[in-house]
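Chapter summary example: a protein plus FE2/S2 (inorganic) cluster.
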Amino acid sequence: MNAAAGVKTLRIDERDFSARADETILEVARQNGIFIPTLCELKGLSEVGACRLCLVEVKNSNRLLPACVTRVEEGMEITTNSQRLERYRRSILELLFTERNHICSVCVSNGHCELQSLAQKLGMDHVHFPYRYPKAQVDASHPRFLVDHNRCILCSRCVRVCDEVEGAHTWDVKGRGINTQIISDLDQPWGSSETCTGCGKCVHVCPTGALSEKGRSVAEMMKRRQFLPYLTLMREDRE
Amino acid sequence: MSKLRLATVWLDGCSGCHMSFLDLDERLIALGEKIELVYSPLVDTKVFPENVDITLVEGAVSSEEDLHKVQLIRQRTKTLVSLGDCAVTANVPGMRNAFGTKAIYDRAYRENVTLDPGIPNETVPQLLASARPVHEIVAVDLFVPGCPPSADTIFYVLNSLLEGCAAEICAKTRFGA
Ligand code: SF4
Ligand code: FES
């Protein structure tokens, strides 16, 4: 094995590693037990670099790079934790909390939510920015599921799983900036969607309580993600 | 040793944080050796006193009365603790914010009322345009999320304050806990 065969050597947090050239910084970090916070990334789906929580410092780069979409390079020197990164990550998380109405205490996903647990893990005990308290809708027109836009962080996992794994592409995104919102089909009630197969994959990859099964009360919505690596593996085998 | 002067106040919340405080059970007796409860919904003092060492504030700032209270409390308190999700984030009381006060008044005092419907203009304090977290109104020294924070968390916080050491809040509690 040598560099020509696609092996790169790099440093993460003062430790030496080697990695395949097609691997991302995040993958290498995870394989070696180094924690980098993530929200939009989910193994088995394409990476979009939407949430920016996984930003890391790379020596000789004048900007921070998202670890989930940045491939390793020869001689890279990466810092995954610093005061500056902590500050940015915390600001990103706080902004997510102010942009919609995340009321953990009455949420179906309370205790099983990636946003909530990340806030705790990163030591976020309050939000410095003023809350927006926007008026967001709940669409309960689907017979089995519902979408509560109050709790959506626009990670686009639902959009990707529906397109890439289920092949239905029911979900998409409309609007820009603060007005961005996920939509089903041509921005119509989910229940009237002609493409939705009712498979529920979107519900289970959603990191928060934005997508849930009907009939769940506070803290009752547990997401099951085992299907995703399994399906991806089966498909790789067939190729 | 003179006892620390503790106050607890109940703004726009469900009193769950105070219930959790009472869940300290027999630990309250031990705590009583070190603190004096000078103001609280649990005691009969009417006016918030001067020179309070620690005030635990439950609830969002939601009405004219809350606003005046919390400003007075800040003036008279050394260490102000935002206790629980309503104080820290506005939580459930904040769910009205997207609708505006008119819709809320109409719902509470007109639509759901059969006897003499109408919006009260005395006795009941006027609502602020939106319910806000305490730290958006006055400076807060310590944040304790949780809905409600457990008795163990409150005990931990009070002990850290009594002993003057930094509290690792997020190791003990979280939003919605
Ligand atoms: S509904 Fe869930 S999965 Fe879809 S974008 Fe929002 S938070 Fe992400
Ligand atoms: S996890 Fe990398 S940008 Fe979201």
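Key point: The domain at 4-165 of chain B is CATH 3.40.50.700 (Rossmann fold).
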